[in-house]
User: What shape does this take?
Amino acid sequence: MRPCVIKLVFLLISCLQILPAKEAPAEGASTVETYWEVPALIIPVVKGDQIYAYVRILVQVMTKDATAIAPYQKYQPILQDHYFKDIYGALCDQWLPGKEPNQATIEKRLQRVTDNIVGAGKLVTYVVNFYLYRPQKKD
Assistant: This one.
């Protein structure tokens, strides 16, 4: 073998020895996921023929009894879609400009959507972050 290939092999082996090994979870430690975070919902608030504001909502869905959420993963894309539709409709049709949207009311709406799709009492929906942005009007 060529000397440069041998040096390369030794270099690779030494680099692998330096990398930290993955630590195994401690005994008794739980690695079961009990929640998932829905990708941020960015919803335009349309009033008339213009965009009045944007709402950014970060939602977490958690199992009610702290069991694994894996059996409910199949509902995640459906829930995300229905969350968007419900909040978009509420903000565009029912919300009055000049009044801040109520985060607690939005959370209740999202919980109702979750219960209708998955079944009541199985998952809990939390609004982790709620942000309303109004673009500056051009003069």
In short: The domain at 35-133 is CATH 3.30.479 (Tetrahydropterin Synthase; Chain A).
